[in-house]
Amino acid sequence: MAGRIIDGKQIAQVLRDSIQEEVMFLKDKGITPGLAVVLVGDNQASETYVRMKQKACENVGMHSILIHYPATVSETELLAKLHELNQDTSIHGILVQLPLPDNISEIKVIETIVPEKDVDGFHPINIGRMMTGQDAFLPCTPYGIIKMLEHENIDLEGKHVVVIGRSNIVGKPVGQLLLNKNATVTYCHSRTKDLASVTRSADILVAAVGKAKFITEEYIKPGAVVIDVGMNRDEQDKLCGDVDFEGVRNMTKAITPVPGGVGPMTITMLLFNTVKSAANVLDSSYSL
Ligand code: GUN
């Protein structure tokens, strides 16, 4: 039987509706949640993501500004702008789109943003707070995955989750969040030996590999839940995930499509984090 499709677009819309309500509530109190997006250079994919993020802000009634620098901007100038945004009371979230040009230190940039406005959840303080299970800004893609699994009532307790990928943005934090939910977590990566033998023991498989349709039938345990974080182009230049969706769907209990799966959740959690930051101006109890 074909696995259930986890409709990220629909789940994202449900969350965006409550975010929009919270934005209205905050505006009523004189606070318009504001996001500053900083883009360096002219990477096409980054420009598209940034446009989508700003449009999403607009749709829920939030304020957003774009600061777009040429690739030649100096690290000093960029850091000075971040200091300025840290002080700007109309801005509750600061996001510097990654990757950055080689002459700019990503870690310096991330550490310059005050943790209270780090709506990407990349600052070491937020990472540390996440690891120790404290309240923190959680990175948007991992947080979106957790929200999807919760929405679908997928039980995590004691389940074997296999994460393929160990990036700081997705792989590492998603494993940590699932561990916080009492899953048993295994990380796999490019040096893992006999990957399929590990992934075939997964009740829940999270694929953040970065290779189009890499995950085929032999990687899946029958009845598994499959979460596809991939954003690739296939031979016809069509957007596709890391999972061969058509090939594996019949074996799964539930599966996320690409597009329309994890992607819409990522932007939603950015909105959520920005509203949470704005709500912190009043008190610190905002939750969905
Ligand atoms: N580049 C790819 N994904 C992300 C993200 O979630 N945040 C930022 N700032 N840059 C990215």
SSE layout:
Elements: E1 4-5, H1 8-28, E2 34-40, H2 44-59, E3 63-69, H3 75-87, E4 93-96, H4 106-112, H5 124-131, H6 140-151, E5 160-164, H7 171-180, E6 184-188, H8 195-199, E7 204-207, E8 225-228, E9 232-233, E10 239-240, H9 245-248, E11 254-255, H10 262-279
Parallel strand pairs: 1-11, 2-3, 2-4, 5-6, 5-7, 7-8, 8-11
Antiparallel strand pairs: 9-10
The structure holds guanine.
Guanine binds at residues 95-98, 120, 140, 169.
Catalytic activity: (6R)-5,10-methenyltetrahydrofolate + H2O = (6R)-10-formyltetrahydrofolate + H(+); (6R)-5,10-methylene-5,6,7,8-tetrahydrofolate + NADP(+) = (6R)-5,10-methenyltetrahydrofolate + NADPH
Binding site for NADP(+): 165-167
EC number: 1.5.1.5, 3.5.4.9
What does this structure look like?
The mean pLDDT is 97. It is built from ten helices and eleven strands. The strands form three sheets. A six-stranded parallel β-sheet has the order 1-11-8-7-5-6. A three-stranded parallel β-sheet has the order 3-2-4, sandwiched between helices. With 288 residues, the protein is of the alpha/beta class. It starts with a strand and ends in a 9-residue tail after the last helix. Strand 9 (232-233) and strand 10 form a beta hairpin. Helix 6 (140-151) crosses helix 10 (262-279). The chain has helices at residues 8-28, 44-59, 75-87, 106-112, 124-131, 140-151, 171-180, 195-199, 245-248, 262-279; strands at 4-5, 34-40, 63-69, 93-96, 160-164, 184-188, 204-207, 225-228, 232-233, 239-240, 254-255. It has two domains: 30-114, Leucine Dehydrogenase, chain A, domain 1 (Rossmann fold, 3-Layer(aba) Sandwich), CATH 3.40.50; 140-263, Rossmann fold. It is globular and about 50 Å long. 40% of the residues lie in helices and 15% in strands. Residues 95-98, 120, 140, 169 line the site of guanine.
